[in-house]
Structures are given as C-alpha cells and as structure tokens.
Amino acid sequence: MLDRTQFYIDGAWVEPAVPRPHHVINPANDAPIATISLGGPDDVARAVAAAKRAFPAFAATTREERIALLERIITGYQARMGDIAAAISAEMGAPMWLAG
C-alpha cells in the first residue's frame, strides 16, 4: 500500500498543516491501495503563496522555454504510463485496458 501523505509545495515535499489521512480503496475488491492526505485552507494558502512567488520567473520565460517544459512533462508522463494506468485502474476498480 502506498503512503503519500505529503504535499509537493514550493519545490519540496512538506507535511500537511493539519494531518487528515484518507484511505483510498479499490472499489472492485475493497482492498486498501493508498493513504493520502486531504488538504485544508492552510495547505492551499501555502501552495498559492508559492505559486505567486514563482509566477514572475515563469512569466518571463520564452515561448520556446515553455514548449520545452511541456515536452519534458509529456516525456515524464510517457515514461510512467504503466504506473499511471495501474494507479487509475486501482482507484477506479477498472480493468487495465480501460485505464491505460
């Protein structure tokens, strides 16, 4: 079972302001597949503040730099397609052919 109880905010994995664990269950077999954290207002405020700090630098990037960033994101998704499909399958209780 995966334990993903931190949030990625401002370039680092951080603990939630108030721990609110949530168990993710595969609806097809009722098996627990992960524990995640539910965010609250303080977590949102921290993420929004980080985004506001990052925006000026991002706004100054060129079209080519943004295209390159999107291409790196796509490459990352493609490299993990199997993992992503397995997670979707387990979360939905759906067959792999539908998830992937």
Descriptive overview:
The structure is a single chain. This protein is of the alpha+beta class and 100 residues long. The chain folds into two domains: 1-60, no CATH class; 61-100, no CATH class. 52% of the residues lie in helices and 20% in strands. The chain contains four helices and five strands; from the N terminus they run βββββαααα. The protein has helices spanning 41-59, 63-79, 81-92, 96-99; strands at residues 2-4, 7-9, 12-14, 21-25, 32-37. Strands 1-5-4 form a three-stranded mixed sheet, with no helix packed on it. It has a two-stranded antiparallel ribbon with strand order 2-3. β2 (7-9) and β3 (12-14) form a beta hairpin. The longest helix has 19 residues, at 41-59.
Task: Map the helices and strands.
Layout: E1 2-4, E2 7-9, E3 12-14, E4 21-25, E5 32-37, H1 41-59, H2 63-79, H3 81-92, H4 96-99
Parallel strand pairs: 1-5
Antiparallel strand pairs: 2-3, 4-5
Can you tell me the residue ranges where pLDDT is under 50 for at least 5 consecutive residues? Answer: none
The percentage helix is 40-55%
Q: Nearest-angstrom radius of gyration?
A: 17 Å
| Shape estimate | flat
Main sheet makeup: 3 strands, mixed
- Report the order of strands and helices: EEEEEHHHH
Instruction: Give the strand content.
Output: 15-25%
Record the strand order, biggest sheet: 1-5-4
